[in-house]
Design goal:
Blueprint (H helix, E strand, L loop, with lengths): L19 H6 L11 H15 L11 H8 L3 H13 L3 E4 L3 E4 L17 H22 L2 H16 L3 H17 L4 H14 L2 H10 L2 H19 L3 H23 L1
Antiparallel strand pairs: 1-2
Length: about 260
């Protein structure tokens, strides 16, 4: 069945329009930092998928129609769809069209976040996130690196617990996104869901002293620097050192 599109599904790209990155950052950025038109299309399609407007298996309109609806050239749409296909977000079938892929949807909740202990979460993060950092060092593109730097800047200036945690979470997800592997992103999203439970919140508030906050900022800078330098080994070591410090601080708090 072909999904019927309303005129509001895709908006054009008028000059001076705000980008997804600006909205997310809550601030204006320089024009040269704007995502490309293809990046904006990718973000818009992801948004429609997450909102449920594009269910799995539904066929997208032809490239020509998408280009017309979004006010861009057809080659821009083709580039965006190719990038989404590489991640498994969409499936392109010769002679049939482009379909929303199953990989675009995370698994149904199989655990209750409140049942996961903070130390269990840290054990899992230590096993997985250093690998993600290494993959990001090998695969990150310039837009990914810009988003990491944006998260760093906001984390550096965050004075409140909630703000620091928000940008800490955003940085770790951005690193996962830089792998261009949707499974890694899904794993980080699961970690984030667990981090939202009450026990984690209480423990993190007790341990996030000014000294620890400054230490974690140093760790974040080291991780991003290693990724920018394409140093997968150092990215692994820096991420592991960061997560061990978080784990040790929490262990001391519950001892």
């Amino acid at each position: 069945m072909v999904l019927r599109w309303s005129s509001g599904f895709f908006n054009g790209l008028p000059r001076g329009s705000r980008t997804c990155e600006e909205i997310r950052a809550g601030m204006d950025i320089e024009r040269q930092q704007y995502p490309s038109p293809a990046d904006v299309i990718i973000a818009r399609i992801r948004e429609l998928i997450v909102s449920g407007a594009l269910p799995p298996g539904h066929r997208l309109p032809p490239e020509r129609e998408l280009a017309l609806k979004m006010g861009v050239q057809r080659r821009v749409v083709r580039k965006a769809l190719s990038a989404l296909a590489e991640e498994g977000i969409v499936s392109r079938q010769v002679g049939r069209g482009t379909f929303v892929g199953r990989a675009a949807f995370g698994p149904k909740d199989t655990i209750l976040p409140d049942l996961v202990a903070p130390m269990e979460l840290m054990e899992a993060r230590l096993a997985i996130e250093p690998v993600i950092a290494a993959e990001a060092a090998l695969r990150a593109k310039q837009p990914d690196l810009k988003r990491m730097r944006l998260c760093l800047r906001h984390g550096e200036s965050a004075s409140k617990f909630e703000s620091f945690e928000e940008w800490d979470t955003a940085l770790h997800r951005t690193i996962a996104e830089a792998t261009h592997n949707v499974v890694f992103v899904m794993v980080i999203d699961l970690f984030t869901k667990v981090r939202a439970n009450d026990e984690w919140d209480r423990l993190k508030r007790r341990t996030l002293t000014p000294e620890h906050r400054n230490l974690y900022r140093q760790h974040h800078r080291a991780i991003v620097n290693a990724i920018e330098q394409r140093d997968a080994k150092q990215a692994t070591l820096s991420m592991r050192a960061h997560l061990k410090a978080v784990r040790d601080a929490m262990s001391e708090a519950v001892a």
